[in-house]
Amino acid sequence: MLNEFRQDLVSGEWVLFATGRAKRPAARLAEAFGVAQAEIAPVFDKPGQVTEGIRQKAEDVKDKGNIGIGTACPFEDPEGHGNEVLKTYPGETNSETWFAKVAKNKFPAVIEGEAGPRQAVGPFSVTEGRGLHELVIYGDHDRQLHEYSAVELGRVFGIYQERYRAMAGYSTSKYVLIFHNKGTSAGASLVHPHSQIISIPILPPDVKRSIFGAQRFYSEHGQRVYDLMIDWEIKEARRIVYQTENFIAFCPFVSKTPYEVRIFSKTSHSHFEHCPIELLPELGEVVGKVLTAVDRTLPGADFNFFIHTAPVEKVNDADPHQYYSWHIEILPKLSLTGGFELGSGVTVNIIDPDQAAEEFRHAL
To answer: What is the layout of strands, in order, in the sheet containing 3-7?
Structure first.
């Protein structure tokens, strides 16, 4: 099984080879049936929502693949389906047995363990794919995050912070990424709502560009670039989706994808894990409003959201708090990447962010 990061000689970008991910349940079923994962994903939903034909296909391969599906969603009972649960967060009502469970990913993108020194393979640099890969599995199979209350979403972000701190203390961790995929086109292999947290031994290219870009802007202008962006968006008031006393959500002036939204703290800080716990319900309110607007404006749309925060270690011994701000990016999946985008590196966005923000505000 191949599990390593390989660095491109020209661009300097890293590619993670994680062939064990091909063993995920949806991927194994899709391979067995010769269909796309999107066609087979419903087998992991509740039994009553699975067609008899798909159920029979699942039964046909269940024993061979030892997948353990066809009768119930594997995340309804994580332990019963072989997931190593690290912590259970109890429900707050009598009808809610558990709010969330944190479990090790059975099909991790990185393998737990110490990463050895970077190796040279011919002219290329290679780093072992070591780190931690966890799941935050939510107790309610039928509720998506936009249906959570502000307090519940605040609790979700509190779990994120807790797991981030635990992962950041792992010796191999240079960066910890928190993300949530909703829908097969966004990379979710199971219908059941769940987030993922992964620590890796490199600084990801996209984060590296943001960190160094913000550092360069600060060096040249003596101002934090994200503060400048937020101040301008507030002054313009055209692309704001929702804001509270401490947080703001807007469609960026330079949105890379249709209906992209970014959420910032108005009190800038470089590290998400340092966001005061008493502000997390307020953050949950803003995230919930944005996700609700996405669902109402783009019914059924898949999306990704992730948290960009400063690296675990300082970059160039500089204090990232001087120039960087943690933030959340929410990206609905509405467009495909074509030849022009792939060949030029220039993104084509077919939706004016002013229009996107107006539609979102109207939906609320």
So the answer is: 14-18, 3-7, 124-128, 119-121
Establish if 343 belongs to a structural domain.
yes
Per the structure, the complete domain to which residue 137 belongs is given by 74-364
Catalytic hit among 133, 194, 308, 327:
194
Q: Is residue 164 part of a domain?
A: yes
Report CA dihedral (248, 249, 253, 258) to the nearest 10 degrees: 180
What Å distances lie between residue 169 and 57, 102, 313, CA to CA?
Answer: 44, 17, 11
Measured in residues, the chain has a length of: 364
- Rounded CA-CA distance 306/262 in Å is 10
10 assigned to some structural domain:
no
Would 66 be classed as within a structural domain?
A: no
Domain count, the chain: 1
Class of residue 345 by CB neighbours under 10 A (exposed 0-12, middle 13-18, buried 19+): exposed
Q: Is the pTM of this model over 0.90?
A: no
Predicted local confidence at residue 62, as pLDDT:
40
Neighbours of 1 (CB within 10 A): 11
- CB-CB contact of 302 with 185 (8 Å): yes
- pLDDT above 70: percentage of residues in the chain: 85
* CATH code, 82: 3.30.428.10
Average pLDDT score, the chain: 86
Sheet with 240-243: list strands edge to edge.
85-90, 98-104, 132-138, 194-200, 175-182, 303-308, 327-332, 261-265, 247-250, 240-243
pLDDT band at 89 (very low <50, low <70, confident <90, very high): very high
β-pairing, 3-7 vs 14-18, is antiparallel
Q: Quick check: is 194 catalytic?
A: yes
Q: Which of 89, 93, 73, 90 is nearest to 81 (CA)?
A: 73
What is d(CA 5, CA 152) in angstroms, rounded to the nearest whole number?
A: 36
